[in-house]
């Protein structure tokens, strides 16, 4: 039995080293200076013995229980301790009864320390709540789990939460030094020495856990010869081998449903999102090593494949799902290969979070639940009574299987949610998405631009967009025409990045966006007819899916009573009166009071010349009104769609309609001739080159269109036809055209004029 006693007959310290070395005072607490350091709130509260309910939250071995015992040693209050793993409601009630007796009989407060408080279920935590509320006990809870998730909200709201952090290496070395120097509780009675690197190994592997370090230190010291306990003053040498055996591998700090679980998966996801394959493999290995459910890891990778990779690599989702299915078939350990493959594929894949646009749309729904536009409603039930579905364009009726029409509610016109990135596959579809978006915007902005000061212009060309709706603005063939217009105007001109481009009639924005693309360091300037159009264009410029700084936005001028500004007006609006290019389409879209067609042509030509820099260029794409599609020609071309009485009526009315249309266009106030425009440009100092283009498009004509055309009160063309042919004949023509239009797209044909005018 002699070996159980030291040379002087004193017993060696008993109990686990980690328990013996718990701090007894605040000054002995190591590594939590952020909450118990000098001047800290908790330290002041403990020293003043004025504690309220507390919850200590942190990893194992950081001193939660030790800090509670320091409070027990410091306070004058009675101290009760429970472990939530072992204690039930009965134990809670007994502790509460004792606390209540002390308060009533002696006026003494009770501090109730509950270790692992998160282990109590809701009912057990609820049983404690009233006594915390009325002050019978002051609760000190200790938990390794996030209290905001695992502890009763009512308890959390009545407690102050302090988070303890893993100990630093410096703090762990100090913990070891104290244990080795303390003669009463530690190993100060012996000379404990370490082989080089042995103590460092214990500290490193302990990974911030003081209890783990002290347990390893205890095992290393008390299993090293000579037999324990040795005589006082004996030397104990801890070799590297003994240190490694005492703490052979790092304990993985992990729990399957707590903070470490969520923190580690968060680190993994963020590493993959950040395209760091090394970090991704590290965190993946930690989860696998800790026994995380592979199904959970695959689930998060499947989410990431859509959320963070998305359309930058559409194959990512298929790869991850295939790897998950492969894992299900083979399991561990071979399943590590598809698990790692999925992680590496995602980490190295191009990234795009454009799918998050869905949540922007969801937020818009939360703000306002708008009605479905009429043309998008189901026409199978209420078409006759309410006109549901009328005006819808069937995209497959067109070559590209796409039609530029409005799909968002009217209140959200011009709103964009999806912003395609320039990365990977998504970069390859970006231009197409933006192109179609710009075409839809052109339709929307033109509709917004129809103001009260604009009257009809019945030029019967696809380039003319009158308020009477002669041409349906939302169909695929017209979209192709809009693109052709843009490409014709910009073709074969060497625009430099710093050039200044002025767009005449920029209301629909299509030419303006191209100017922004081609001259990003210059100036993209546009002329619009009213302030509403300007605001809409600037709004859409910020919604196009291209991030623009304020100085990069187009410069837009509202010009109501004229076609082009003079030089002073241009300087005021744009800061310059010199442009390398002026691009114009749809000349004289609307009438200007007090100016004849010829006077407008002269003013336009002279002002364009004054605004162009030396060697500047004017490009015009216009449709002479008299060379547009006529209803008579359309009726003649499509009359084989008619049968019976309608065909006979059409044949009899066709000559009268053709003659009436010739008379109407001969007298139409907005009509102009190409020869007059060419001569006017030459007189102003241009060298114009004219090219005539045959244009055609397929388009759908709705009953709304035909009603507008044949309106004998509001339409100049309809009124003239009514006066010339009579109301009865006009009604017959309307019925005939409606019958033809119901049978599918109509081919529209007209002649356009492309003018290239360089300054002389």
Outline of the structure:
The protein is an alpha/beta fold and 760 residues long.
Q: What is the topological layout?
A:
Blueprint: H1 17-20, H2 33-36, H3 41-47, E1 54-57, H4 64-74, E2 78-83, H5 89-106, E3 110-115, H6 122-133, E4 137-143, H7 147-150, H8 153-157, E5 160-163, H9 169-181, E6 191-194, H10 198-206, H11 210-222, E7 235-238, H12 240-246, H13 259-273, H14 277-289, H15 294-309, H16 315-330, H17 336-348, H18 357-367, H19 379-386, H20 424-448, H21 476-490, E8 500-504, H22 510-518, E9 523-528, H23 531-541, E10 555-558, H24 567-574, E11 579-585, H25 597-611, E12 612-622, H26 631-638, H27 644-667, H28 674-683, E13 686-699, H29 703-709, H30 716-725, H31 727-741, E14 746-759
Parallel strand pairs: 1-4, 1-5, 2-3, 3-4, 6-7, 8-9, 8-11, 9-10, 11-12
Antiparallel strand pairs: 12-14, 13-14
List keywords for this structure.
7-stranded mixed β-sheet, alpha/beta, 760 residues, 5 domains, elongated, 5-stranded parallel β-sheet, 47% helix, Helicase, Ruva Protein, domain 3, Zinc Finger, Delta Prime, domain 3, Rossmann fold
Overall shape: it is: elongated
**What quaternary form is this?**
single chain
Q: What value does the Rg take, in angstroms?
A: 42 Å
Please give the number of β-strands. Answer: 14
Instruction: Give the distance, in angstroms, between the N- and C-terminal Cα atoms.
Output: 120 Å
Biggest sheet, open or closed, and with what strands and sense? Answer: 7 strands, mixed
